[in-house]
Amino acid sequence: MPDNTQTDRIIEILEGTEADLTRRIRDQKKAGRKAVAPRVFFVLIGILALANLYFVNQLMMETRAIIANLNEMYGHFATVSARMSEIRDDMTLMEQEVRLMPVLREQMEALAVKVAQMNEDVGAMTDDLVEMEQRVGGMTTSVSDMSVRFRALNQKVGQMGLDVDQMARPVP
Fold first, then answer.
1. Are 39 and 140 in contact (CB under 8 A)?
2. What is the pLDDT along the chain (172 residues), one digit of tens a residue?
3. Torsion of CA 156, 162, 166, 167, to 10 degrees
4. Is the pTM of this model over 0.85?
5. What secondary structure does DSSP assign to 112-155, as a single string?
6. Cβ partners under 8 Å of residue 37, min gap 6
7. Nearest Cα to 159, choosing from 73, 55, 78, 86?
8. What is the C-alpha separation between 82 and 84, in angstroms, rounded?
9. Which site among 56, 83, 112, 128 is 20 to 30 Å from 41 CA-CA?
10. To 10 degrees, the CA torsion angle through 107, 112, 114, 120?
């Protein structure tokens, strides 16, 4: 996929070609030649080439936006995975500590501490759930944006198909 520099260079070449063709047409008019159809044909081909470059550039920009949204979603999934691993580790640690208590009294004291920790963890989990809910809302918005962009992309590709069909028709 060409970047903006390459696209600008191609447009510059096409404009130079168009200027050269225009100069040749002027020279031919001075020489008295009446071949209008080839001139019009080459000018139209130049215009269609510029239009195609514009559509390819638009397609490239939309593709980059989609990739950026997918990368953002991947980041959200990684954060959720890390949080779940922390919760799993905390649960494993709590299980080991409960198993190692030799005396009931010590077990009760440790349980009281763990209950307090669990309350904090539940509070943290509640905060995490609120944050996850916000991120899911953000992901929903991103998916919705992607859907809108895909619709626009489909329309642009359809328009490009019409343009290519138009270019494929013979010049009358």
1. no
2. 556 788 888 888 888 888 888 888 787 776 655 556 677 888 888 888 888 999 999 999 999 999 999 899 888 888 888 888 888 888 888 777 666 656 667 777 878 888 898 888 888 888 888 888 888 888 888 888 888 888 988 898 888 888 787 787 776 6
3. 50
4. no
5. HHHHHHHHHHHHHHHHHHHHHHHHHHHHHHHHHHHHHHHHHHHH
6. 171
7. 55
8. 5
9. 56
10. 180
At 84, list the tokens.
């779940």
In the chain, how many domains are there? 1
| Tokens coding 51 | 């239009």
Q: Return the structure tokens found at 147.
A: 């859907």
Closest by CA position to 53, among listed 108, 104, 1, 129: 1
Q: Which residue has the tokens 């809910």?
A: 133
Distance CA 97, CA 110 (A): 8
